[in-house]
Write a structure and sequence with these properties.
The chain is built from 6 helices and 6 strands. With 141 residues, the protein is α/β, with parallel strands linked by helices.
Length: 141
């Protein structure tokens, strides 16, 4: 059940995973489009004006982090959430420094992606449980 009528634009360079993300989020949010790379993400955001963008961090060409910088500088969305397989503190730090408000490990998507999107839409930062655990020094090796 939708709490807010948030419009989402999603980006991932793996088509199968992108379809799974759409399935996970479609009942909760309005999915306005999908992109398979950072350049297409920026172009679509300019046309579709989503509230929140959910993007993979590493994509061919323009990375999700670089795309987020452009999206936020051009005010093409309110917030960006990274959904990534990279459970790396340096990558997470780079994402947060670029203005990304949510950093969700793909292994945590089922539990953490929807709360991350809602928090980001409110301007709050969200780190998925795997990343938060690693930051606190109790992460898995």
């Amino acid at each position: 059940m939708r709490q807010l009528n948030l419009r989402l634009l999603l980006a991932d360079d793996h088509d199968g995973l992108l379809r799974e993300i759409v399935r996970l989020l479609a009942d909760e949010f309005e999915i306005v489009g999908t992109a398979s790379n950072g350049a297409a993400l920026v172009d679509l955001a300019a046309k579709l004006k989503p509230d929140v963008v959910v993007t993979d961090v590493k994509m061919p060409g323009l990375s999700g982090i670089d795309a987020a910088r452009k999206l936020l500088a051009l005010q093409l969305c309110k917030a960006v959430v990274a959904l990534t397989m990279y459970i790396d503190l340096e990558v997470a730090k780079a994402a947060l420094e670029a203005g990304i408000l949510g950093y969700v490990a793909k292994v945590d998507a089922g539990d953490d992606l929807i709360p991350a999107i809602y928090k980001a839409a409110k301007g709050e930062t969200f780190l998925s449980s795997t990343i938060a655990s690693k930051l606190s020094g109790h992460g898995r090796s």
